[in-house]
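User: Can you fold this complex?
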Amino acid sequence: MSIAGVCLEKPGTKVALTGNEAIARGALEAGVAYAASYPGSPTAEVLGTLSRLAGNFKLYAEWSVNEKVAMEGAAAASFAGLRSLVVMKADGLNVALDFAGALAISGCRGGMVIVLGDDPNAHSSVREEDSRNLCKAIHLPVLEPSSVQEALEMTREAFSLSEDLKLPVVVRCVTRVCHASGDVELGELNRPLPVPDFTRDNRVITFGIQLHALQEQKLARAAEWACHSGFNSYTGPENPERLVIACGPCYMHALEALDMLAATGVGVLKLGVTWPLPHQLLLKYLRNASEVVFAEEVEPFVEDNVTSLAAMQIPRGIKFYGKRSGHVAGPAGPGIGELDPDILASSLAGIFGVKYETPGVSGRAEALELLGEKMPDRELAFCAGCPHRASFWAVRAALELDGRGGIVLGDIGCYTLGMARTGYNLLQTVHCMGAGIGLAGGMANLSRFGFDRPIVTLVGDSTFYHAAIPALINARYHNSSFLCVVLDNETTAMTGHQPHPGRSVTAMGEPARTVRMEELLQGVGLPYVVQDPYDVEATIDVVCNMLGQEGPRVLILRRTCVLAAVRGKQKARVYVDQEKCIGDSCGCGRFCSRVFACPANVWDAAGGKARIDEAVCNGCGVCASLCPQGAIVVERAVL
Amino acid sequence: MKEPLNIIITGVGGQGNVLASQVLSSAAAQAGYRVAVGETFGVSQRGGSVMSHVRISLTRPYGPLIPKGRAHIVAGFEPLETLRVLLEYANPETVVIMNNRPNYPLGCLSGEQKYPDPRDIEKAAGKLTPRLHLLSATELAKEAGSPLAANMVMTGALAGSRLLPFGREHFTGVIETLFQDPVRELNLRAFELGLYQMNK
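Assistant: Here's the predicted assembly.
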């Protein structure tokens, strides 16, 4: 799991890589020349890896302003005959879909691969979108790796398939592959000298229904290819009566579940190509089957398409078990959340009418009794020292001082956590990148019907560039009255500190011409103020003042993400002067630990006083400015 | 060795669990074993629970998730999170290495929920599995130079547990290539302290 493994020159060697690194390696083995992405979990590290190797491999890698622009850039490289890669999370495909749908009709030239990161269980997303349905809707082939090794191989082979079909190919990778690691066998690296070529004779145009017919022909060829592709494989008896059809990591889970049940005689058909379906291959195994079980995440995609195929092609009835029948389901119900070996073992046990008991501990009841009635939850929180905590605190305080019942709309980024306790439950709407500003404009336009609450919308810096500008233009054009607060931590923090157009450096580490937020706002004609949120008192004043103004207006709360700020530096030492802290007799209600709720501010129950956990504290010192007793001391590091 | 050997590393976002699982699995791969690692962290850089499943095998590859009740070793960087994992993944044979330093969830800091008494956590862990090793990993890390190196103390403890089919040199080799000085020196010191504690 290292960059050294990704660029190792020895084919045949086994190294441990993450799924995302394996995708990057696969692209390098295919000789990718152009790679673009907007960071999103679970695929953020693919371009992160490629950009670090860009110089070494003479490839171009960029963090684009958003996914649509990333896909357009990659498509241009493909039109010029180069191999190109575009990477995004499922939500990013929604942003890029307008172009993707057109591109799927026009087709491409050089091999073009779209890596989509789906996040079953929504580990690091606001929802668990299954992008396969969209891929089917716009007619793109989909490959689904079941392991880290396959992530490498499928990415590599997807380039050839794309070139052959003249159609972009999707590699749909779920979190359990992207964020998994495993030993992979490396193939040969490919370092072509890219020779882009797009002359007056080249045309790539989306127009008319003739191209739709061509698109269907391409898919028919892809289905034919899929029937012979090694990415689909079968293990089990020759004519299975019981068949499990599995794809993605559910294939590994299904093999393990069958082991756990000691079930024999069950055939397992692994589908690596899930769109278009390999009809002939499926029919071969369905022909004699009487019971068929589907193991896939999240929606019943393969299930619906296979049952429809069987309805047309197989005259007798087969019993199908899956999400539609309700038999394959996790604790939240069929089609909701991830699958795992346990869920599949109990689902298969139910279908096959056998028993499965989870091994486990014996002293469970006694242990739980010792721990009290309920184990405390571990809810998400802004990091210790996060500037967002100070910003949310100031906005909350200002709204209370303002007293007119102002509302707060939200957006996507670290600050989405502001809907929870760590952000004082401030956010009232959370949807997608940039939505908070459009919603704020809409709310503001309700003023003509008498809606008169102050409106605040919070947006991060990377989201600002990604999706906020059109909504701000709209607000200015219609004079929609709201306060937009940009929480500018000068990086794309949530996904691992990728640079964005507000930074002075590109993905490849080259100097960039910074697109200053202030200049954009000036261009749109919006008034703005810049303030450091660590100065909480001044920030409250500014927010109060701006709440009283009319029209669209912007407050930039600028302070570098604390994790980026302290990296490789000596942190300030913050501690509670135990003489000055007077504990519960203060009347502050344990302000630092209970109310301000920074995880570094803890309560020493034995001593009855506040304390700083030095293993957690990042040394921002904001709590020191808020402590009514002035009991918190900040010792800045001597440099 | 069990086939596969199932190890769970658990803790709170920011404690460096993912890095520890990376060192462990790279060491296993270098020693010639097959490895599969599943990380469950989501947005947990932001203070949530983090769990890494590490599966080491000889014959065939495995999926990245360990089935319930089938962990052979649990390395817990935080007591409450260790308990959470034990309740789901342990069996009476499971060996547990637990850092005794609590990290309080917001609900406990606010007073709405109660963080269990550390002695009760220890007792409860003992009820679940008798093979419990307690470690002051954060304190040992401070001794090594920084409380943040507790993850390498725990990694050292894993290496010293005598439960892995490969030796410490595979770990130190990975740490040496993964980090640069002065972090490399710090991590090696922390690793040695953890290893020594387990062998003491």
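The first strand of chain B starts at residue 5 and ends at 12. Chain B touches chain A through 71 residues (CB under 8 Å).
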